[in-house]
Every structure is written in C-alpha cells, then in structure tokens.
C-alpha cells in the first residue's frame, strides 16, 4: 500500500523506488499484488506515463487515509513509551495552589524524574501567551475561548459559621438574612455576590464585610474563630464540620459550584509533559471531593 501511494505521488515507479530505497521492479510487484487483491486495475501504465483508473483514484484516497491513521497510531504508541521531560511553567490561584495543587506535586515529580516545575501562585489574571506559561488553572474568564480547556472538576461550596458566632448573632434561615450578618469577604477583586438556589427560586446576595481576605485558609481560620459567616470549598471544611467546630448553614439551598479548568494554548495541546500533568492532577482532585466538570 505504501509503494502504491508513493508511486502515485512521485509519478513513476523509479522515483518511488528511490524514496523507498527498493528497486522499481519491487514497486511494480507491490502494485500488481494490490490489483490482484482488489480484483481490478488500479493504474494505466505505459513506458512514458502512468495514470490512475477511476477505481485506482478512489483506492489511492483511501490508502492515504489508512496510512495516515497508521502513522498517527504509531506516534501515539511511541509517545506512550517515551519519558516525559522538560520544564513546565504553570500558574494557579493562591489558595487552590496552596491547598490542593502543591500537596500533589512531590509525588508527581517523583513519578516523572525528568520533569521540572515552575509554579506561580497568584490571584491576579495571568496572560498565558504574553507571560510564557505552559498552562494556567482558573475559572473561565473572558478571552479564554482561544485556549484549549481541560475540565478539572467542580469545587463544591458550603456556607458555614462557628458555634460562637451563631450563639451571638443567630442562625440565618433564608439567604436575604445574610445582609444583616458579618460575612467574610473573599476579596478576590470588586464586590462579592453569593448565589443560592432553593424552593423559592434563585437569590443573589451582595454581601458586605468588615474583614476581607484573599486566601481560603485564612478565611477558614477567621470563620473558625467566630469572625463571621464564610463560603468555603467543602474539602477544606470536612474535618471542622465533623468535629462541630463549624456549622453548615442554609442546607435547603444549593450553592453553584466553582468550575475549574486547565487552560493552555492549542500549540501545546500534544505536549507529553503537559498531558501527563493534566491527567495526574485530574485524578488527584477526584480524591479530594472535586467532582467532574463539563467542558466550557
């Protein structure tokens, strides 16, 4: 099949033989074998020129597709056997990186000794292309449509407060009551609005706070010490909730989850080191109460 396709593209058996490093007679033998196998003539050939029959042209197009698929499959197999290597430059939100990303990196780097990692943790918007990052972890932002997005999961949230706070200020039973409570602001930039879906519809509550902190662990600590009501990722609260150090609030309402994605430029989609990292991170997050998320 390869000899037939090469003979068509080169225009002669002799030129095809030179490319394949075999004799012209061997090219002719392969073509005749295909004609016997298909039961039809594929080429019209004279001493001066050759041309495809109608069937031969159709067969040629299919052969090109098949050979392309074989080459792609071979490349995938070879890449799977290869060792990922190189430096991976990654950006991620501060709290996510601190609580979920950094803990998995030692085992990942141990499993892939030829990969090096440059991790930049910040809550500011990172320009993937201009700043030369291989990938960034974040919720979808305007302009991210130009990048490839790998869903990492949905970060489930829980509204909670310490018993000491609730004893002093009372327990809210409806989202609108949060306007009259001390709420701990994430200080991610601008105003913060908490959304709730319940039996009486959807409520978007613009909260105000005397304390704003742009770090999940610090917000958790403030809530734990009675600083106010906090909206936190559920994976951070499990132990505190089990030990009744924090109390879940408004449990009749559903809070929209935060969808996290790994964004990277299309040109880096096939990088083995990036694919290995993305797969490892996705599997790790699924063990940390981060549920699968749909594509954006």
Describe this structure in words.
Pfam families: HTH_1 (PF00126), LysR_substrate (PF03466). Keywords: DNA-binding, Transcription, Transcription regulation. InterPro entries: LysR-type_TF_proteobact-type, LysR_HTH_N, LysR_subst-bd, WH-like_DNA-bd_sf, WH_DNA-bd_sf. The protein is an alpha+beta fold and 296 residues long. The chain has three domains: 2-81, Arc Repressor Mutant, subunit A, CATH 1.10.10.10; 86-152 and 260-287, D-Maltodextrin-Binding Protein, domain 2, CATH 3.40.190; 157-248, Periplasmic binding protein-like II (D-Maltodextrin-Binding Protein, domain 2, 3-Layer(aba) Sandwich), CATH 3.40.190. It is 39% helix and 22% strand. It contains ten helices and 13 strands. The strands form four sheets. A six-stranded mixed beta sheet has the order 4-3-5-12-6-13. It has a three-stranded antiparallel beta sheet with strand order 10-7-11. A hairpin with a 2-residue loop joins strand 8 and strand 9 (201-206). Helix 1 packs across helix 2, helix 1 crosses helix 4 (54-81) and helix 2 (13-20) packs across helix 3 (24-38). It is elongated and about 100 Å long.
Briefly summarize what is shown.
The protein has helices spanning 2-10, 13-20, 24-38, 54-81, 94-101, 105-111, 163-169, 216-224, 234-242, 272-286; strands at residues 43-45, 50-52, 86-92, 115-121, 135-138, 148-155, 157-161, 193-198, 201-206, 230-233, 247-248, 258-264, 290-291. By secondary structure, the chain is of the alpha+beta class. The chain folds into 3 domains: 2-81, Arc Repressor Mutant, subunit A (Orthogonal Bundle), CATH 1.10.10; 86-152 and 260-287, 3-Layer(aba) Sandwich (D-Maltodextrin-Binding Protein, domain 2); 157-248, D-Maltodextrin-Binding Protein, domain 2, CATH 3.40.190.10.
């Amino acid at each position: 099949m390869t000899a037939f396709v090469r003979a068509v593209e080169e225009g002669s058996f002799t030129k095809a033989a030179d490319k394949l490093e075999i004799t012209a007679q061997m090219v002719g033998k392969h073509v005749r074998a295909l004609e016997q196998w298909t039961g039809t003539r594929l080429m019209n050939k004279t001493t001066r020129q050759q041309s495809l029959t109608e069937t031969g042209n159709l067969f040629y197009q299919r052969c090109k597709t098949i050979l392309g698929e074989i080459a792609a499959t071979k490349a995938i197999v070879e890449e799977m056997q290869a060792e990922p290597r190189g430096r991976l430059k990654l950006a991620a939100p501060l709290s996510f990186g601190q609580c979920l990303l950094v803990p998995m990196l030692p085992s990942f780097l141990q499993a892939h000794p030829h990969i090096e990692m440059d991790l930049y943790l910040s809550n500011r918007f990172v320009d993937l292309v201009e700043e030369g990052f291989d990938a960034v972890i974040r919720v979808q932002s305007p302009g991210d449509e130009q990048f490839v997005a790998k869903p990492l999961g949905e970060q489930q949230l829980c509204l909670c407060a310490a018993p000491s706070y609730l004893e002093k200020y009372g327990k809210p039973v409806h989202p609108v009551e949060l306007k009259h409570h001390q709420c701990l602001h994430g200080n991610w930039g601008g105003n913060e609005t908490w959304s709730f879906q319940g039996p009486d519809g959807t409520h978007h509550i613009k909260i105000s706070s005397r304390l704003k902190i742009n770090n999940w662990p610090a917000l958790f600590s403030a809530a734990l010490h009675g600083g106010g009501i906090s909206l936190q990722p559920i994976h951070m609260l499990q132990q505190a909730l089990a030990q009744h150090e924090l109390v879940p609030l408004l449990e009749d309402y559903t809070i929209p989850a935060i969808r996290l994605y790994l964004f990277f430029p299309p040109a880096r989609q096939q990088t083995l080191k990036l694919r290995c990292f993305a797969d490892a991170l996705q599997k790790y997050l699924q063990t940390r109460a981060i549920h699968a998320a749909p594509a954006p």
